[in-house]
Amino acid sequence: MIPRHPPLQDGWIDAPHRGAALGRFPLESGEAIDDLRLSYVVHGDLDDKSKPVVLGLCAIGSTHHRLDFLIGAGRALDPARYTTIVVDALGNGLSSSPSNSATQPGERFPRFTIRDMVRSQKRLLEQLGVASLHAVAGASMGGMQALQWGVSYPDAMSRIVALVPMAKTAPWSQALNETARLALRAGGAGSSAEVDWTAWVAVTHILAMRSPTRFAADVTLDGMHDWLARRTAWWRRQQADPLDWIYQSWAYDAHDVGTTSGFGGDTARALAAIRARTLIAVPRLDLYNPVEAGIWAAQHIADCQLVQLPSQDGHLAASEADPETAGRIDREIGVFLA
Predict the structure, then answer these.
(1) What is the pLDDT of residue 1?
(2) For the chain, which residues make up each domain, given as ranges?
(3) Fewer CB in a 10 Å sphere around the end CB: N or C, the chain?
(4) Are 255 and 289 in contact (CB under 8 A)?
(5) Is there a contact between 54 and 40 (Cβ–Cβ < 8 Å)?
(6) How far is CA 289 from CA 38, 175, 286, 295, 316, in A?
(7) What is the DSSP letter of 202?
(8) Residue 230 burial (10 A CB sphere; 0-12, 13-18, 19+)
(9) Reduced to 3 states, what is the DSSP secondary structure of residue 272?
């Protein structure tokens, strides 16, 4: 199947899409992806060895555009200073996913973990000839992958940037994901009928992504019902596959850096093994990844800078949603990477 790229949005960078065929890929579960393929983009020139390389990672349900608000001239990930490789995570519909696998389509696709995502990215970098990284950066599930990079490959990078992350998925986050999965199943996911995304959008785009303050501001002009209808119509146009999101949410739920081999389930000990300088940023309130989880992770990493953003936007704080907060994040990361 041909991967479907969502329509280009304002602020996204239309970089050439690249793909790497990486062959059979064993998973933590003991199963394997028959023909692993990773989608990625490069901002800068991989052949220019004078510039340090940054690896950018995706959030749940997102693509390589997730960190575009940090990329560009004068921004934290300026291509004049860094070569940034942004990889599409397993299950996002562009890299290997239930929706695009030729040999393991749909629910025949094996379940994967966040560590599987990280190992697949490591294999890609090896194929590209990238031996070391200046930084690994991501937001939300991307930040969770970034911390896993620090645990799995402590000498692979000098710095880690993890926005609104968790080192171990909180029960609250698992409950939100399960509610969203139930909404998708009730809306027809897994059947031949067109999926009704309305309830899923209400859970993920309102209850998980926004704070009460941010949502009140968003619906000022047209009210809650009209906003939800417009947002659902917008999401349908993104051409996302519900099963892809479900698979990524299972990986999200199961994540714990402490279950990395050698740590015996001890999350704190795994975080203490991170050697890279680390920046973790959290807002005042996050109704998806609890703020306390990010703060706790920062307290257990030896060399970690915690940035507590004065944002009222909730989980959306780690995005371009509010220009003032996005500018603050960009400046903090720019200084940290330099």
Answers:
(1) 47
(2) 18-170+256-337, 174-244
(3) C
(4) no
(5) no
(6) 26, 11, 6, 11, 11
(7) I
(8) exposed
(9) helix
One-letter identity of residue 4: R
Q: Using CB atoms within 10 A of its CB, is residue 47 exposed (0-12), middle (13-18) or buried (19+)?
A: exposed
Token digits for 332? 């903090």
Q: Provide DSSP, 41-88.
A: EEES-TT-TTS-EEEEEPPTT--TTTTGGGBSTTSTB-TTT-EEEEEP
Q: Could you tell me the CA-to-CA distances from 151 to 69, 139, 157, 304 in Å, in that order? A: 27, 17, 11, 14
**Which residue bears the tokens 């969770």?**
144
From CA 152, how far away is CA 138, in angstroms rounded? 16
> What type of residue sits at position 68?
D
Going by C-beta distance under 8 Å and a sequence separation of 6 or more, which residues neighbour residue 138? 56, 57, 58, 59, 66, 67, 144, 145, 146, 161, 162, 163, 165
pLDDT by residue (tens digit) across 162-186?
999 999 999 999 999 999 999 999 9
Burial class (CB in 10 A: 0-12, 13-18, 19+), 45: exposed
Tell me, what's the pLDDT at 2?
47
User: Distance (Å, rounded) from C-alpha 201 to C-alpha 180?
Assistant: 8
Three-class SS state of 244:
helix
CB 24 within 8 A of CB 33: yes
Residue 205 tokens read as 């785009």
> Locate tokens 């062959």: which residue?
23
Q: Which amino acid is at 166?
A: M
Stretches in the chain below the pLDDT threshold 70: 1-3, 192
Report angle CA 284, 158, 170 to the nearest 5 degrees.
35
CB neighbours of 296 closer than 8 A, spacing ≥ 6? Answer: 167
Q: What is the pLDDT of residue 191?
A: 74
Phi and psi, residue 130, nearest 5°: -95, 110
Report residue 43 as tokens. Answer: 């901002």
Length of the chain measured in residues? 338
- Tell me how far apart the alpha carbons of residues 336 and 330 are, in angstroms, rounded to a whole number: 10
